[in-house]
Structure formats: structure tokens, C-alpha cells
Design goal:
Layout lengths: L2 E5 L2 E4 L4 E8 L7 E7 L6 E7 L4 E3 L7 E6 L4 E6 L8 E8 L14 E2 L3 E6 L1
Parallel strand pairs: 2-11
Antiparallel strand pairs: 1-3, 3-8, 4-5, 4-9, 5-6, 7-8, 9-10, 9-11
């Protein structure tokens, strides 16, 4: 059974940085899509960043220029470097991976495998 586990969340002051990592187990395939999503209290889950098999990245407008997604090929999972954090970045962050081709790696419906989430809290 494939498991996805996030790490690296925590509390930080506005302007600070965090690095979110993800690890997979029992997952032997190369991912077509890797992504990070987040959900704040009372809000819907939203895509933060994704990276496809070719290395093409996409970002939510709210995080462009501040967040960077990359692949950890050894762990077959994405990494999210978050700089210049703002209070509005506070949310539960979820890692997701998908081995098969998908039209759009920013859609949550594109993913079969999800982690349980890691909390990011940014205080102003």
C-alpha cells in the first residue's frame, strides 16, 4: 500500500522560510505529477505548486516568486521551499503524487496518492 508522508511544517514569523518534504513508501513508479496543495480553515483546498514528469512547474499566483517546487528523485516525491512567508500562507499543506498521465497537474482530482498533511503557521 502506497503511503505518502509530509514533514517540515511548523510555526514561523512572517518573512521567514520553511522547507516541506515528502516521502513515499511502497511506491515504485515514476510520478507524472507531483504537487503541493493547502487548505486553510473554512476554505477549500487549493493548489500551491506542481511539477510534471518533464519538470514543468506551475504555481498559484499568490505564491509565485516566493515558493519553489522541486523533485526529490530518491524519495519519488516533491519538495516545497517557501520563502517570504505571509500570514495568509497559514494552512495545512498536503503532498500528492500521481504515476499516470494527467491533463492538469494542478487539479486535486488528478492525484491518487495523498499525505495526511503538515501544518504551517505564519505569525505576523
Amino acid at each position: 500500500q502506497v503511503q505518502v508522508v509530509e514533514s517540515g511544517g511548523g510555526s514561523v514569523q512572517a518573512g521567514g522560510s520553511l522547507r516541506l518534504s515528502c516521502a513515499t513508501s511502497a511506491y515504485t513508479r515514476t510520478s507524472y505529477c507531483m504537487g503541493w496543495f493547502r487548505q486553510a480553515p473554512g476554505k477549500e483546498r487549493e493548489a500551491v505548486a506542481s511539477i510534471d514528469e518533464a519538470g514543468v512547474t506551475t504555481y498559484a499566483d499568490s505564491v509565485k516568486g516566493r515558493f519553489t517546487i522541486s523533485k526529490d528523485n530518491a524519495k519519488k516525491a516533491p519538495v516545497l521551499l517557501m520563502n517570504s512567508l505571509k500570514s495568509e500562507d497559514t494552512a495545512m499543506y498536503y503532498c500528492a503524487v500521481q504515476p499516470n498521465w494527467r491533463f492538469n497537474c494542478n487539479w486535486s482530482s488528478s492525484y491518487n496518492y495523498w499525505g495526511q498533511g503538515t501544518q504551517v503557521t505564519v505569525s505576523s
